[in-house]
Amino acid sequence: MKAAVVVFPGSNCDRDLAVAFEAAGADVEMVWHKDTELPGGVDIVGVPGGFSFGDYLRCGAIAANSPICQAVKAHATRGGYVLGICNGFQVLTETGILPGALLRNAGLKYICKTVALQVETSQSIYTERYNAGDVIDIPIAHHDGNYFADAATLDSLHGEERVAFTYADNPNGSMDDIAGILSQNRRVLGMMPHPERAADSGHGGTDGQALFRAVASQLTDA
Amino acid sequence: MKATVHVMLKTGVLDPQGEAVRHALGALGFEGVQGVRQGKVIELDLAEGTSEADVTAMCEKLLANTVIESYRVDLS
């Protein structure tokens, strides 16, 4: 399995994400935001956390219009897998690959702590090693993680069981406690919490490991 | 020529920053402030001949996120 991790100016979880993919058995190639194509044979693209372009204008807005994001969009449109974490989730909503938007946290504060997440569906390559209803501990670190979508979008997310994770105790005002969502074809996951920061015993928690292992095993068998 | 783009969160989208400003005004003793909405103003210095449609395209593609924001363009 081959993963590509996108690097924007201001990304700061790119290497953590690469390490998490590698630990699960993936070959990882880093791609720069100015690249116009993904490396050949890429199964999954990781869009990492951080503060791409200093969060100027809106979080993820400038990154979403970078050359590599055109390639990521084409990859997703072809049915390719994409995992966007934190700023990566913001980038995916800004590109329109995932619906909705991430607003400023309702309490206005940057929040950096480990939170309890409820797994809402095991029906994706990302969540298949969890059971729906499982509660896992994953860190969050964001200022703009307050998920917003209009009523019709929320209805379709719920109706199609595309909410992947919810917060057990909503920290940021997200609608319906949403922490992560899937695309219609279930191949794109965007989430504010950081599973790559809970993927090694040295992290103080390993609840995120199952996500990377599931992805690696699914995409290796494919 | 210049264009001024006003970007505001849409009605119904929670604006926690505006709320914080409202509270701060109340704390300073300014009474009767019933709501505050905070947006941004973007000034564009444009080559002559740039059309309003061009500016609208800029808003749609980058300057505003129409999922959550509305915008207004003033050309001068």
CATH architecture of chain B: 2-Layer Sandwich
Rg of chain B (CA only): 16 Å
> What low-confidence regions of chain B span 5 or more consecutive residues with pLDDT below 50?
none
SSE order of chain A: EHEEHHEHEEEEHEEEH
Side by side, the strands of the main sheet of chain B go 2-1-3
* Computed CA radius of gyration of chain A, to the nearest angstrom: 15 Å
Q: Indicate the CATH topology of chain B.
A: Mth169, Chain: A
Average of per-residue pLDDT values of chain B: 95
What is the domain total for the residues of chain B? Answer: 1
CATH architecture of chain A: 3-Layer(aba) Sandwich
CATH superfamily of chain A: Class I glutamine amidotransferase (GATase) domain
Q: Which regions of chain A contain 5 or more consecutive residues with pLDDT less than 50?
A: none
Number of helices, counting only DSSP H or I runs of 4 residues or more of chain B? 2
Helical amount among residues of chain A, as a percent range? Answer: 25-40%
SSE order of chain B: EHEHE
Number of domains of chain A: 1
CATH topology of chain A: Rossmann fold
Q: What are the key terms here?
A:
heterodimer; A: 222 residues; alpha/beta; Rossmann fold; 9-stranded mixed beta sheet; two-stranded antiparallel ribbon; B: 76 residues; alpha+beta; Mth169, Chain: A; 3-stranded antiparallel beta sheet; 3 strands; elongated
Structural features, described:
The complex is a heterodimer of chains A (222) and B (76). Chain A has 222 residues and is an alpha/beta fold. Chain A has a single domain (2-221), classed as 3-Layer(aba) Sandwich (Rossmann fold), CATH 3.40.50.880. Chain A contains six helices and eleven strands. In chain A, strands 2-1-3-4-11-10-9-6-7 form a nine-stranded mixed β-sheet, sandwiched between helices. The longest helix of chain A is centred in the C-terminal third of the chain and has 13 residues, at 209-221. Chain B is of the alpha+beta class and 76 residues long. Chain B has a single domain (2-75), classed as 2-Layer Sandwich (Mth169, Chain: A). Helix content of chain B is 32%, strand content 28%. Chain B has two helices and three strands, in the order E-H-E-H-E. Chain B has helices spanning 16-27, 52-63; strands spanning 2-9, 40-45, 69-75. Chain B has a three-stranded antiparallel β-sheet with strand order 2-1-3, covered by helices on one side.
